[in-house]
Amino acid sequence: MDYRQSTAGIKSTPMMQSTGQCEPESPLPKLLVSACLLGNPVRYDGKSKDLNHLGLQQLLEQGQAIPFCPEVAGGLPVPRPPAECVSGDGSAVIAGSARVLTRDGEDLTANFLAGAEQALKLCRDKQIRVAVLTETSPSCGSTQIYDGSFSRRPVAASGVTTALLRQHGIVVFSQHQLEQALNYLAFCRQTTSQTATRSVRENCN
Ligand code: SF4
């Protein structure tokens, strides 16, 4: 991945702090993480998918990793029946040409869309530019989801939340790409910090 291209849209705003000194405002980009990857038992089966990753735990303790479950945020209970994107992927669900259904045909599309919208709002509110989301989930899958036949057959596609975040410039990795994601986050933070410092120097000269 070309990190320089991917961070083209990153902006930061210098400001005069109340001390009267010129200091950079540095809202460093944070990391959105599927809540189940951080040990929260929010999956459809009532379990988690805890990565037990030291670096991730440290980011969580520092308030730099933000856990989020779009399906719970969208109003679904734990546990809940498994669901899959049917007749298309997450982008198609957003476009209205596919649905999210349970095996029994219950239509959960509205819940999945609501959860995705809340994930996007959280990213905007908290300066999140990067996400690590759970692979094959109909919400969080980023390179694979199941094909809608409820036979656990994966296809190359993304879930509803991942698709919406990507449509708005958030870079999404799966948990299998965690080191890549952390490197990318560090790159974003360095770029943001340098840009803020440069802007402040220019404004203060
Ligand atoms: S919606 Fe995402 S965060 Fe929630 S349980 Fe499923 S994979 Fe984990």
Condensed summary:
The chain has 205 residues and is an alpha/beta fold.
Explain what this protein looks like in three dimensions.
There is one protein chain. With 205 residues, the protein is an alpha/beta fold. The chain has a domain at 71-205. 36% of the residues lie in helices and 18% in strands. The protein has 7 helices and 10 strands. The chain has a 4-stranded parallel β-sheet, sandwiched between helices. Strands 1-2 form a two-stranded antiparallel ribbon. A hairpin with a 5-residue loop joins strand 1 and strand 2 (22-23). Helix 5 packs across helix 6 (160-167). The longest helix is centred in the C-terminal third of the chain and has 27 residues, at 178-204. The protein is elongated. The two termini are 36 Å apart. Mean pLDDT is 88; it is low at 1-24. Residues 34-36, 42-43, 69-71, 134, 137, 139-140 line the site of iron/sulfur cluster.
